[in-house]
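call fold(seq) -> C-alpha cells
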Amino acid sequence: MERTAPTPWTVAVMGAGAVGCYFGGMLARAGHHVTLIARPQHVDAIARDGLRMQTRTFDERVRLQASTEAAAVQGAQLVLFCVKSTDTEAAAAAMRPHLSPGALVLTLQNGVDNDERVRSVLSNEVAASVVYVATEMAGPGHLLHHGRGELVIAPNSVAASLAEMLAAAGVPATISDNVRGALWAKLILNCAYNAISAIGRVPYGRFVDHPGVPQVMRDVIAECRAVAQAEGVQVPGDIEATVFGLAATMPGQFSSTAQDVMRGKPSEIDHLNGLVVRRGERHGVPTPVNRVLHTLVTLIEANPR
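ret:
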C-alpha cells in the first residue's frame, strides 16, 4: 500500500533572526510552508536569493516566504515566536489582530517567563520551548550554524504531532513536563557565559579556562540555583557539569549578548543576569556576581566603542 506524504504545516516565524532562520529554514527545507518575519535587509536578500543556510552538514539556499510585517502570521497553524525578550509584549500585540484562532504560538526565546508574558497579550494557546542551537547571521539572508539544533517543548494540544513533524525535518524535539526547569537550566548557562563573552569580546573556548573565570562561573551558577530554589523550580541534571561542558561543544561561539554588544545593538541582559538579580531581590537571595556582570554589560551598552 502506497503511503501518502504528510500534510505540510503552515508556519510563521516571528522575529526571524539567527534562531528563527535556522528552525524556519529547516522546516521549509522539509517541505513546510514557512514565512519568515524579519528585518528589511534579511527580507530583501531572502526574496532575491533565498535563505542561505550554511551549516555543519550542508550549505544551501532555501526558498521560502519573507516579510517585514506582523500581518504575515495570518493563516499560520504554528508561530515560532523568536523575538528578543525585550520585544515580547510589543511583538505579541502586533500579531494579535492577524492570528488564526487555532494557531499555536511556540516561544523560542532566552529567559524563563516569555510564554507567560505572551499569554498576557494573546488568547491563543501558547507553549514554551527550550532552544539548544548555536547560530549567527553572517550577513543579510545568510545563516551560519555552529552546532546543535534541538528543542524541548512544553505539553500542548498538538505536542505529539509537532514533535514528530520537527523530528522529520531534522530538528530533534522532546516533550517535557518540566520545561520551566529546563528554561532555568538554559538561563543558568546563559548567565554563566553571555556576559563574560560580551565583556571580554571572546568566544567560549577562549575564556572558560582563563584564571579566575571558572570560579566566577561557579559563583553565578550557585546564585542562580539559589534563586531557582526560592522560585520553587527544580533544575534538572548536574547543571555545573552541563555549564562547563558547553564550551567544548562550541568553542568558537560568541554569546548572543556579545554579538549584540559588538554590533551596537541592545542585548537581552536584563532578562538573563538582570532577571536573576530582580528575582533574588524578591526572595531575599543575594546575587552579587550576577549584579556585577549585569551592570558591566549595561555600562558597555551605554558607552559603545
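DSSP finds twelve helices and ten strands in the chain.
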